Amino acid sequence: MTETITEKDVKRLWIEKDAVCIELNDGRIGREFFRDYEPLRKATKNQLKKCRLDLDGVWFDDLDEGLELSGFFAPKKMNPIGHVFWKFPELNAAAFARRLGIPQPLFAAYVNGSKKPSAARSKKIDEEFHRIGRELLEI
After folding, report:
1. With 0-12 CB in 10 A as exposed, 13-18 as middle and 19+ as buried, what is 105?
2. Is the pTM value of this prediction over 0.70?
3. For 100, left (φ over 0), alpha (ψ -120 to 50), or beta?
4. pLDDT in tens, 71-105
5. Per-residue pLDDT tens for 6-18?
6. What is the dihedral of CA 21, 26, 27, 30, to 10 degrees?
7. In the chain, count of helices (H) and strands (E)?
8. Three-class SS of 21-36
């Protein structure tokens, strides 16, 4: 079940280079990436800057496009690697790539789903997640 979020729950709204962001009164921060919405992907910086909160969404007046606030915190359909980094934003994907000994841009492509690792590489990634878990349990 998706959590209902209204404009009263939002502390602030801002635009980053690649996303629209909201911070809730409870401190949670949600992002929706422009690349995931065709009208936003094709929009100019000026069009993206002209956004506002409206009841239960973020509205882009110049684009006649809106994003539901609850969607900022709804689970996203994503690959398993990306899901781990979405669920645990305190994990650093670049540092994880260094632990694996693979280039950060390649690992970023695995995280965002633009590339799929081979079965052997997937196994190494899973093993590294488990190794980190064991290390944390030892603390």
Report:
1. exposed
2. no
3. alpha
4. 888 766 667 888 888 778 788 889 999 999 999 88
5. 999 999 999 999 9
6. -30
7. 6, 6
8. EEEECCCCEEEEEHHH
